[in-house]
Amino acid sequence: MDVLQRAGWVKRALFLADRISLVNQACNAFKAHLPEASPVNLVTEKDTEDRVYGCTYPTLMGLIDETDGGAARFGVGHFDLVIIDEAHRSVY
């Protein structure tokens, strides 16, 4: 992800997981290994904007329907890269 962002191929990335603990673990790993990425944990920081986001499926489903002034917060093409962890465990 870091290489893709530095090359200009990825502006915003999303890390999706089925459990809050996995999102927390990923955000902490991003902070440790890519401190300039400054990930936003959408489970706890819903109003923050940046280049890297971590979220659970249910939280993202709620945020997709949110609008700000009539425009969807996360519209089509908002994320250039989506990383999914433990997809086989989720009903989503």
TrEMBL record:
Molecular-function GO terms, alphabetical: ATP binding; DNA binding; hydrolase activity
Q: Where is the signal peptide?
A: none
Domain Helicase/UvrB N-terminal: residue ranges? 4-92
Q: Which GO terms describe its cellular component?
A: cytosol
Q: Which PANTHER family match?
A: ATP-DEPENDENT HELICASE IRC3-RELATED (PTHR47396:SF1), TYPE I RESTRICTION ENZYME ECOKI R PROTEIN (PTHR47396)
Instruction: Write the protein's name.
Output: Type I restriction enzyme, R protein
